[in-house]
Each structure stands twice: as C-alpha cells, then as structure tokens.
Amino acid sequence: MNIIRASESESNRRxxxxxxxxxxxxxxxxxxxxxxxxxxxxFAHMFNEEVFYTxxxxxxxxxxxxxxxxxxxxxxxxxxxxxxxxxxFMGSIAYVILKKxxxxxxxxxxxxxxxxxxxxxxxSVKYRGQGVATELLKSIIHSTSYDEYVLEVADTNIxxxxxxxxxxxxxxxRIPQKHSEKSGVNDLVYMKHVKVKDVGD
Length: 201
Prior knowledge:
Blueprint: E1 2-5, H1 14-29, H2 36-43, E2 52-57, E3 60-68, H3 79-86, H4 88-103, E4 115-123, H5 132-143, E5 148-154, H6 158-166, E6 170-176, H7 180-183, E7 187-194
Parallel strand pairs: 4-5
Antiparallel strand pairs: 1-2, 2-3, 3-4, 5-7, 6-7
Helix pairs in contact: 1-2, 2-3, 3-4
C-alpha cells in the first residue's frame, strides 16, 4: 500500500476519488440523483488535492480522506459542473446545499491553528473491511504537524466510530439532528485525537 497526497499522483485520479466518495456517501447524495454515474461525474471536479490523501493498492485508489484547517476547504464546488450533470433545477439545489455543507463547513466549536479536521473518509467498495482506512488515517496523523485532530461522524455509523476509537479518537460533543426520521441520523458525533509527541520532539 502506498499512501500519498492526491496532488503527488502522477496521473489524474479525480474520477476514482469521486467514485469512492459517492459510494461512501450515497445515503446522503441520492437525494440529488439516484443515478450513481451522474453523481460520479458531478463530484469529480471538487477535490482540493493539496489536502486529500489517498491509499493506493495495485495502482488503484483504495481509500480517501482529507485533512485540513479551518481556512482551507477540502473541496471547491463549481456551479457549472452541477448544472451540467444534474440539470438546472436539481443542479442548483445541490450546489446551494452542498456548498454550505461542504465548502463552508461550520463546526460547532472553534478550530485552532494546531487542529486538523479530518473529512470525507471513504473506502472503495472493493477494499472495505481490509484495514485500508485505518492505515490511511494513521499515516495522515503521523505525517502532518497538527497537535489535535477532529472529525464528524453520524451516530448510526457504528463501524466508523469503532475504527476512530481504535485510532485513539474519543467523543467530546454530539449535536442532535432535525428530521432524524428522514435522514436516519439521530446525532452528529464529534471526536478528537490528541497526538502523543515523541520523546525528543
């Protein structure tokens, strides 16, 4: 397994990243279209490759995750791409909703300069259950210079919560969600990992 920043890839891997992203978050994205092929095309443009990391196995991306600060968005959305692939009406709705949710992400706490936000963790369908995301997140935490790492996860995503707990994340806040009967999510859980500094650092 080779773990690299997306910007360091020798080829354009955005389509692969979009496929993993859509498959991973389809539960929320299918409101805009049930057609995964359309969604794959819609989101391929958006990744900020300077803050996205990829785990590559056999020259295929097996998992993705972003690690960023409060002032650098993980994704940058283009209205033209949403209109092109989802049509004027749904493309406009998706752009407005997701720009606020993704690009102008507001956490219910203050992100300090020494705090990295881990976002959009997703594993390729082919590689799920093989520990790829675990290794990817370990590598991100080891190779970046933040003192603390935070992430957001749905309370119903039990497997992800267990993964994060294994990596040393602990819940420190949860926010009840409106319309939980529709989304299937009761609370958004916020978890934090404090990096243990090596002796001599």
